[in-house]
Amino acid sequence: MNNSRLHLFQGYGIELEYMIVHKDSLAIKPVTDELFKKISGKYTSEIERGKVSWCNELVLHVVELKSTRPEKGLVELADQFSKDIRSINKELASFDARLLPTAAHPLMDPDRDTFLWPHDNNEIYETYNRIFNCRGHGWSNLQSTHLNLPFYDDEEFARLHAAIRIILPLLPAIGASSPVLSGRNTGFLDKRLDYYQKNQRIIPSLTGKVIPERAFSKRQYHKMIYDRIIHDITPHDPNNILQPVWLNSRGAIARFDRGSIEIRILDIQECPRADMAIVALIIGVLKVLVDEKLVSFHDQQAWEVDPLHQIFQKTIKDAEHALIDNLDYMAMFGVGAHAPLKAVEVWRHLLNLVSKYYPEEIKPWLPQINTILEHGTLASRIVRTLGGIYTPENITMVYRELADCLMYNEMFGLCMEERS
């Protein structure tokens, strides 16, 4: 995110990752390099197309769309993402392929279907593969939405990092989209994040407990996180190919070189309209926290990793159905609960807060947010639509509909109704 040192909430970097699959069978199609060569005339890992750029990272069946520069207008950016998705699908037609949304392919066999990017940066990817074995659901079968938020200096970093740490445990409760892997119900509505928190356990300091440590300055962050990563990776990477900023896999990553914090634990949704609605709501909640509308900056800083991590474990499994029983946590948002509440109720309260303080910013996204709060996360809607039938044929039929939702920028469960 090249933001020329923007201040808080002056612009946002958004990244959306999608799988390339066969247009009918939805089998993995590792053709990103050939797609980019068809368009640009050479093998390249990035193609800039104005407001949105197309990129590839690690594996050959993923395309990442990202805002070329930080953007403030989320509505316009969502529209541009949708246009670029249609353009990519048009180009993919010659490969008998299309883009598929959601955070995990439901039928992919990582051992069979994983092909690493063989061109520029391949030395980095090969090093990752040697250390971690990237043939696994937690590496080659996960697609996410990344939100980059700017900060100008240490003071702004501290306020933003404190607020982000607070909200991270709730994100799976609104964004989960990965309930099915290897053709079965995993028992997790956000199985991608279950893999995410475990796939680098050979070096625990890289991911920590996903919720970042209580670091509120550049010096503290380097001492508590980056210095530990450098120490722990050195025996595995004697040639210093992997940089600590790449290796840091917490749910939110401080990029002091760019002046931004990147939130990485959002499962990607069925269409840009849904992704950007969730992003807009998260930004609104972070503004409420940063502006100290409900709780002081000092009280936000005081939260330790463990209680936040405990809430996170519940939401990655049960998403919106997770019972939040930490009454102090809910009280911080002004939820005067005397008993556990489902996470969806906490999100309803947060939406009301954002609607109160920033009504014009959240207004364009209310239809999508209300769909999620009333009908469930995308993961829940997928499970409900599958109806307990986990045959390859039924799974493929449901995920074809999801691919259609992506193509037409429509919410799953409503897209067929809207087009009929």
From TrEMBL:
| Segments forming a coiled coil | none
Mention one GO molecular function: glutamate-cysteine ligase activity
Any one Gene Ontology BP term: modified amino acid biosynthetic process
- In Pfam terms, one family for this protein is GCS2
Q: Which domain of life is it from?
A: Bacteria
Alphabetical list of InterPro entries matching this protein: GCL_type2/YbdK_subfam, GCS2, Gln_synth/guanido_kin_cat_dom
By what name is this protein known?
Glutamate--cysteine ligase
